[in-house]
Task: inverse folding
């Protein structure tokens, strides 16, 4: 007689498990975006950019810092504290990772071969010297990545605002549909719900990985509107009776 196999249902993750999973996904998203930023910059240096060496990456970093400084000098008093804190945090993290750690100084020192170096050490230095521009470009791109990440954190209230507007408008449309006898669509509701979070993720990936300087308003505003639209459609198509 064959033994009956007992299947145990998968345990549902609790709030702590879901929080850990969300944090790991965010970290993975940021690491993937940083990696793609460096790879795209290296490909551009090798085949597309006219600027010599790491000049393109350095120029992009300075432009992005200018956008953050522009927000600091042109913003209102309510946001000045948050922008100033974000700017100081970016400066502290960048200095810790690349200046205080000695990465930049070591790259500059290692690329020069001295007569006292052995064969292996001299070969390593020649290798570093050959890829010095690419390594420095990676440093500048990662600093720019930190600046853009700070700008995205500062832009989250815009996503929240458009989300609130979308939910409010969607609930109003839902009430009108309920009282006027309109039809509901679970298909549209589930698709809008499925797209809401990917819109946020796509905004972060696109802005963090884009290979040229671009004003954050050209990325943040359209995606914030699209996020609010997804929430509006989702709430408007929510079932009429609970």
Result:
């Amino acid at each position: 007689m064959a033994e009956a196999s007992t299947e145990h249902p998968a345990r549902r993750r609790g709030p702590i498990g879901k929080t850990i999973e969300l944090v790991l996904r965010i970290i993975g998203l940021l690491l993937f975006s940083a990696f793609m930023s460096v790879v795209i910059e290296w490909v551009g240096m090798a085949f597309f950019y006219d600027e010599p060496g790491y000049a393109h990456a350095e120029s992009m970093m300075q432009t992005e810092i200018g956008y953050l400084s522009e927000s600091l000098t042109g913003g209102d008093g309510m946001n000045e504290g948050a922008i100033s804190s974000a700017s100081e945090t970016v400066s502290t993290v960048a200095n810790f990772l690349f200046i205080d750690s000695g990465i930049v100084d070591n790259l500059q020192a290692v690329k020069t071969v001295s007569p006292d170096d052995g064969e292996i050490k001299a070969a390593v230095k020649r290798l570093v010297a050959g890829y010095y521009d690419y390594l420095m470009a990676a440093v500048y791109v990662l600093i720019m990545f930190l600046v853009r990440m700070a700008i995205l954190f500062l832009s989250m209230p815009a996503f929240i605002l458009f989300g609130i507007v979308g939910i409010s408008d969607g609930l109003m449309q839902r009430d009108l549909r309920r009282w006027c006898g309109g039809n509901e669509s679970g298909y549209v509701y589930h698709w809008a719900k499925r797209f809401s979070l990917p819109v946020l993720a796509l905004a972060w990936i696109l802005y963090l990985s884009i290979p040229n300087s671009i004003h954050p308003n050209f990325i943040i505003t359209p995606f914030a509107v699209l996020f609010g639209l997804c929430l509006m459609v989702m709430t408007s198509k929510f079932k009429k009776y609970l």
